[in-house]
Specification:
homodimer; 395 residues; alpha/beta; Aspartate Aminotransferase, domain 1; Aspartate Aminotransferase, domain 2; 2 domains; 7-stranded mixed beta sheet; 4-stranded antiparallel beta sheet; globular
């Protein structure tokens, strides 16, 4: 997103929600890479736009109910089938013998899980919710917003030393820093683990394992780039946990938009059909090939800019074998995690002066010399970001 | 919804989510009028199905953002315009000088409002949430599910006598009993009022006033019957309340499905266009005319069945002048609220024996001799309901 500070107007918007990037940035315009709106993949969806068209008639999908034969009664069968097919194609998660719970984005499922994994006896103290720093900036507020007696944010998992029950959120690849994660709490008490796998898709990271955890959360937003649809899902081993999550979603929003489910099912179908008909089509037609190439190109350009600037260092990522792509690959995270060199104490403020809006380390539970930068915005914005970063000088 | 107990199967379903009603009920089948799935109006939407078609292409509506110039940044301008236009056509609410906050159904907005209207100082005791009994069966659980320190369910507003701050929910017309409501708490302390106006539409009740309260909540589900879309909205006078609600929706689900917004805007547009072109078309083409006639016919048939049974009494409703229809009308609530005559202590159990599934008074904070019956299910189910009720005999 580009916000002009000259006249206060946003970039021109089509009536269909696509934003026309301004072709040049004035020197007073901010490059806003603070949020993670995943619009980078839009050019792919433009190419296949007609193939992906969904049409919904006036009398379709009116009911609250999606499938009364499914525990997750608000999920339509097409959505369920598409999700299972996608994981079968990508091979990133074991879906067998698990319950599939649909949510209004993974944010809703995060809260449903806190509810479902907390002890229900009211005499109990709130369960501690932790994640290793740097952790996703919204976990804390999402946990504490209603000041629940069931759970409470307790901060950095690496520092957790209480002799009390806990929930550890393991985000892998991690937001903000892209690292692959495992649980870190070392406690005598048994903890419950939520695996937030929003970025465990082939464009961001080699698919090294078919993960098989008790609680795994995914989101459509970061997989295909359709953040506006608000579709997330969780695979859950324990039926009682799944039932409590579904009850939460019922009270919270009486299910999940049927229109979004139908559309997400269609888009996922187009992706999977591509891999099914692999030999008959050009590889640029394959979504994960396209999006991985795009991420790779951006990261190469970005590393060049960072090297030129001599002001920041970047996280180093290992190369691993990707079972999906059948080759060795590096990681190309959705966010870059920059560390400012000595002399710059507050990276966010420093970059504000360069008219680059980022999210500072404090929001992620670490030092202000770190900043998070979105790598999945528009192409125009990304190019301008690289230009500005490469011109950065030590103060 | 019809649930067969013979072979455990549901009614046949089209792939587009429309349910083909079974033309005859076996005597072992339940008539399920326990929920309020508003599918009664589907025949109208079948007639205008093509006019209402929305088409969404692969690259459209990808972003989290709907309108960065609006406080409610996830709401697309089309949705905002459609909602304002609808209230302008119906005349049921004053929208001027209020903030419009969109939610994933009105359930999400209810919780957003509890958060926004609670005192934020953590030293404070939880604010009491009350509603006059009989009250909507989900308010209690929706309030208490996370055991918040900000608010707590305190029950019947008519019995509230604490000298403490409170939030009163005024549902008008009321779910379950269809009565028109005003606040009832009589306390020395100032309370905050949430007007839940889900049923304040011309098919259910005369539009007697253009309401102008500080907090008014509406839902698309009960207005047009599109419950699957999960679209609700609130008009809020105080910008600080609106901001807190939007922050809640952000943390809860990062906004509201863009696909649902586009579709809801389209459907509302078709309704409003009808009234704009009033003289050029047959009145059966007008949504509120169609749906009011349907509700009236059902209520007449239903009253006949109840009279025949001699087992129940019904709530009496006044006749009022409707500013929208420019005539005197009775109310035709979305639910019937039955009181069993003496000798039947538990209405829900009594009706279970007649293979009618209802929701008993206990769920609404009153005696078990009351039951709530949906009047907005399929035609087939409704006819069978009347047949079974008219055969009811005193035990």
């Amino acid at each position: 997103m580009v916000v002009s500070t000259i006249n206060g107007t946003s970039p021109l918007s089509h009536s269909n929600g696509t934003t026309i990037p301004l072709s040049t940035f004035s020197c007073n315009s901010f490059v806003n890479v603070e949020k993670g709106d995943p619009v980078a993949f839009r050019p792919y969806w433009e190419k296949v736009r007609d193939e992906c068209t969904v049409e919904i008639k006036g009398d379709e999908w009116m009911s609250y109910l999606g499938d009364t034969n499914n525990l997750c009664w608000y999920m339509v069968p097409q959505m369920r089938d598409a999700i299972l097919r996608l994981h079968n194609v990508v091979g990133n998660a074991v879906t067998k013998d698990k319950f599939l719970v649909l949510g209004t984005g993974s944010s809703q499922l995060f809260q449903a899980l806190l509810y479902a994994l907390s002890p229900s006896e009211s005499s109990h103290r709130p369960i501690n919710v932790v994640a290793a720093a740097p952790y996703y900036s919204e976990y804390k507020d999402a946990t504490d917003i209603l000041q629940s007696r069931l759970f409470q944010w307790t901060g950095d998992a690496a520092l957790y030393d209480k002799d009390e029950p806990y929930i550890e959120v393991v985000t892998s690849p991690n937001n903000p820093d892209g690292t692959l994660r495992v649980p870190v709490v070392n406690s005598g008490v048994e903890g419950k683990i939520i695996y937030d796998l929003a970025y465990y898709w082939p464009q961001y990271t080699p698919i090294t394992d078919q993960l098989d955890h008790d609680v795994m959360v995914f989101t459509f937003s970061k997989c295909t780039g359709h953040a506006g649809s608000r579709i997330g899902w969780a695979f859950v081993k324990d039926i009682e946990v799944a039932k409590k999550m579904i009850r939460f979603v019922q009270l919270n929003s009486i299910g999940v938009s049927r229109e979004s489910q139908i559309r997400a099912a269609k888009m996922i179908g187009v992706i999977c059909d591509g891999y099914k008909n692999l030999k008959s089509i050009e590889s640029d037609h394959l979504f994960f090939d396209y999006s991985k190439r795009l991420m790779k190109e951006r990261w190469e350009k970005f590393k060049g800019a960072i090297e030129k600037s001599k002001v920041f260092t970047l996280t180093k990522y290992p190369t691993s074998y990707c079972h999906f792509n059948k080759d060795l690959f590096e990681q190309y995270p959705a966010f870059a995690w920059l560390k400012c060199l000595e002399g710059i104490k507050d990276g966010e403020s420093y970059l504000e002066k360069l008219k680059i809006r980022t999210r500072g380390g404090g929001r992620f539970g670490v030092d202000a010399k770190y900043v998070r930068v979105s790598m999945i915005g528009t192409e125009d914005e990304f190019i301008e970001l690289c230009t500005r970063l490469s011109n950065a000088k030590r103060e």
